[in-house]
Amino acid sequence: MNTHYDVLIINGDVVDGTGSARFSADVAISGERIAHVGDLSRATADKVIDASGLIVSPGFIDAHTHDDRLMLSDGDMSPKVSQGITTVIGGNCGISLAPMPRNIPDPVTPPLNLLDEQGGWFRFRSFAQYVDALSARPAATNCAMLVGHSTLRVATMDDVTKAATASEIAAMRELVIEAMEAGAIGVSTGLVYPPAVAAPTQEVIEVCEPLARYGGIYCTHMRDEGDRVIESLDESFLIGRQVGVPVVISHHKVVGVQNHGRSAETLAHIADHMTRQPICLDCYPYDASSTILSAKLVANSTRVTVTWSKSLPEMAGLDLSEIARRMNLSTEQAIEKLLPAGAIYYRMDDADVQRILRFDDTMIGTDGLPHDEKPHPRLWGSFPRVLGHYSRGLGLFSLEKALHKMTGLTAGKFGLIDRGVIRQGAFADLTIFNEQTVGEAATFAQPVAASIGIAGVLVNGSVVWEEGRPSGQRPGKVLRREHLPADTVQ
Ligand SMILES: [Zn+2]
Fold first, then answer.
1. What is the whole-number distance in angstroms between the Cα of residue 251 and the centre of ligand 1?
2. Which neighbouring-strand residues pair with 224?
3. How many other C-beta atoms are found inside a 10 Å radius of the C-beta of residue 301?
4. 207 C-alpha vs ligand 1 centroid, how far in Å?
5. Fewer CB within 10 Å, N side or C side of the chain?
6. CB atoms within 10 A of CB 429
7. What's the confidence (pLDDT) of residue 488?
8. Is there a contact between 360 and 428 (Cβ–Cβ < 8 Å)?
């Protein structure tokens, strides 16, 4: 075909994101979309990328992020595009940056402080104002945003340690409607966290009630991921059935030594319920978790590392036991001195992580915390770790299967039309990488590092990452969830 395109990616092996086997093909881009896939040896282009010996994949979709503020404060999105991510799902775990119709408490209510410890970024009185800000100054990545139930509680309630009153529920429901009208894709909860722990199941159902008519989705960091994990799954499924929307179990895991191995039970339970209602889940590929520092979470961990501390910032990166020893305090006393703070908790079993990753409907997410001083390495390394360590190294699944979990599966579950797949007409979100070398460089000791083997990343047809650095282009869009009759998988 003798045609001229904006961009040509030649000589690569295409993995199209559907789970199908790879094939050799050139990919042509015109504007924001893929114009042709096939033999384009006679075509010309303004920019030609030689992908000889490399994989050309749909750009990765990060199913679980806390990038609500990062997109505004550091729109190059280096932690994400450096690992091949082109779209992020934000507003997870009940915490979204918007809407905040009244002043954010000082100090910022944990875990909302994971988005901004100072509080100044909680400046959007409506979700529409937030979407306007993202659209006016786009980031390098696309995003699809959830509105957080904990944010709604802090935004509307006088006392979040209680169940919401009927009028508070009505106020939250109005904010859900406003968010969905503005382009939110659904509601997230974090029922384990202080601002939401007092919310009964019925409150969540009533707050989420408008979701069905907007074709929304319900994503949940469950009330319990340990001893009561089955009960928490049942609560999540009940909410999904009552509201009439698909459920996403966030960062699925089983925590605490006494629960190691129980992923066999949770996945069977999820699979059983999937025959009756739309459910899926995401997972990050590590056996340590990370969130705010809390004595409750320390209790069932074998080791804890502090990621940041407002009162003792010099302790970031040290183990809690070491901090307690240096300060000559008990663990409990040391926690008190450090708060507010963040931590990494070693409390999972890699056999469970592997079993969850292998599950057919598990999407890959980072759950990265971009504002932590010493973040969990999942922020920079999750996707290449799945491709390198778990797929190539351990042979957990094929490269095609791994990529499906990062692209086509995720686009289908979140209703992101023409994303997560390589075919003519789809948006040109693409990641080019070396399957022999791809892997994470971020470690627990040195968590801020661009991954290995990612050769180039394009978002909406524009190069956002090449030669190991951001290009400076910021072509990201705010994506809406297309109204799907069921949770169609592309
Ligand atoms: Zn969470």
1. 7
2. none
3. 20
4. 19
5. N
6. 35
7. 42
8. no
The arrangement of secondary structure in 4-58+420-436+446-470, i.e. its CATH architecture, is Roll (2.30)
Distance 198 CA to ligand 1 centre (A): 17
172 CA distance to ligand 1 centroid (A)? 21
Region 422-451: mean pLDDT is: 97
Say yes or no to pLDDT of 1 above 60.
no
Tell me how far the alpha carbon of residue 345 lies from the centroid of ligand 1, in angstroms.
13
Phi-psi region at 271: left, alpha or beta (left = phi > 0; alpha = psi -120 to 50): alpha
Tokens (6 digits) for 329: 């305090």
Query: CB–CB of 215/246 below 8 Å?
Result: no
Q: Is 4 exposed, middle or buried (0-12, 13-18, 19+ CB in 10 A)?
A: exposed
Distance 300 CA to ligand 1 centre (A): 17
Joined together, the tokens standing for residue 406 give 């990062």
- Tell me, which fold does domain 60-288+347-414 have in CATH? TIM Barrel (3.20.20)
In angstroms, the CA 236 to CA 231 distance is: 9
Longest pairwise C-alpha distance within the chain: 75
Distance CA 27, CA 424 (A): 9
CATH code at 289-346: 3.30.1490.130
User: Cβ(434)–Cβ(45) under 8 Å?
Assistant: no
Cα-to-centroid distance, 250 and ligand 1 (Å): 7
CA distance 314 to 307: 10
Q: pLDDT for 277-321, tens place per residue?
A: 999 999 999 999 999 999 989 998 999 999 999 999 999 999 999
Q: What is the pLDDT of residue 297?
A: 92
Both structure tokens of 196: 């939401």
Asked if 104 and 119 touch (Cβ cutoff 8 Å), the reply is: yes
Cα radius of gyration rounded to whole Å, the chain: 22
Q: How many angstroms separate the alpha carbon of residue 191 from the centre of ligand 1?
A: 9
Strand-pair partners of 13: 24, 55
Contacts of 5 by beta carbon, 8 Å cutoff, 6+ apart: 28, 29, 30, 35, 36, 40, 43, 44, 45, 46
The pLDDT mean for the chain works out to 96
Q: Token match 């661009």: residue?
A: 450
Q: How many angstroms separate the alpha carbon of residue 193 from the centre of ligand 1? A: 9
End-to-end CA distance of the chain: 28
The residues whose Cβ lies within 5 A of ligand 1, an ion, are 93, 221
At 146, the amino acid letter reads L
**Mean of pLDDT values over 231-236:** 98
Q: Which residue ranges does the chain devote to CATH 2.30.40.10? A: 4-58+420-436+446-470
Start and end residues for every CATH 3.20.20.140 domain found in the chain: 60-288+347-414
Question: In angstroms, what is the span from residue 289 Cα to ligand 1's centroid?
Answer: 9
Distance between Cα 233 and ligand 1 center (Å): 14
Which secondary structure element, helix H or strand E, spans residue 353, and what is its range? helix 350-358
CA–centroid distance, 97 to ligand 1, in Å, is 15
Instruction: Report pTM.
Output: 0.96
